Fold:
Amino acid sequence: MSTLLDVRDVSKRFTMGGLFGRKTIDAVMDANFSLSAENPEIFTIIGESGSGKTTLARMILGLEDPTSGEILFRGEKVDRHAGRAARLKFMSHVQPVFQNPFEAFNPLKQIERYLESTARRFLDTGDKAVIDRAMDEALQKVGLSLKEVRGRFPHEMSGGQLQRCAIARALIPNPPLLIADEPVSMVDASLRMSIVNLLKSLRDDLKVSVIYITHDLATAYYISNRLIIMQRGRIVEMGDARTVLDNPEHPYSRLLKASVLSTDDAGAGKLMTDAGMLDLATDSVGQAGRLVDRADGRSVRVYEGV
Ligand SMILES: Nc1ncnc2c1ncn2[C@@H]1O[C@H](COP(=O)(O)OP(=O)(O)OP(=O)(O)O)[C@@H](O)[C@H]1O
Structure:
């Protein structure tokens, strides 16, 4: 089995402030996981705000250097400081999809201009016919076409359509890996599932692997093959999505699941969290512990004396 992506003991520490009053934040601590090149999957990173999901994604994209550890893509180290040609080659293989499609596109620029400049850059051609074909092919993959998009400005499309255009842009170089950071959180709830289903079809039909970053357990459960749950920079549980989410073991994973507001709870006006679980989850913050493999294939962080 060959490896597409290998995240090895990766940590990221941010240091802020001057000589006095220096503050450090361990955004990611000892992250380890890998994706296979042969079996495309949706690999989900779940965690609440500030758990380190975006920092991890930025390191995988080579936008941020790990403080320690390394990230390999097809055996080669992801290097932010690699030369322009090497960066372009890497970016043709690993493409980001960002959270807010309205921010990703300049309101004064027609959408096709973005697609066009991406095609020009990655296909290294100025041939209009080749560029148009590449744009149309990418748009078709997300259920749109160049005919529909041509001449349109971002405000002339729905959030869902615009996110599709952003995904089409990312697909132009035919990357085997997409990093989608909360791709549905800014899209209307009614259109969200169509984007989630699109990610699923990219995996199933086009064999694209997706790192799906979210704090939404429902969509994670629906589309993920495997997932990791992050608490304050540490992976606390990792494994098959259904195994983990059907029966989470780490206190923080259990808390996350229990905190999802069900319509039953909403009626009674209370969340189903119990204080004991909250205490257990809080106690684990700041403790290193170690990830232990379980018989069902998951890994769970356990702590000394627990
Ligand atoms: N450039 C930076 N400088 C200093 N601290 C940072 C920087 N980027 C992130 N952090 C800190 O690192 C921690 C993890 O942030 P990160 O954005 O990775 O979390 P997240 O899980 O993606 O959160 P969200 O869901 O809110 O985007 C936070 O405490 C954040 O304040």
Q: What stands out?
A: The chain has a mean pLDDT of 90. The radius of gyration is 20 Å.
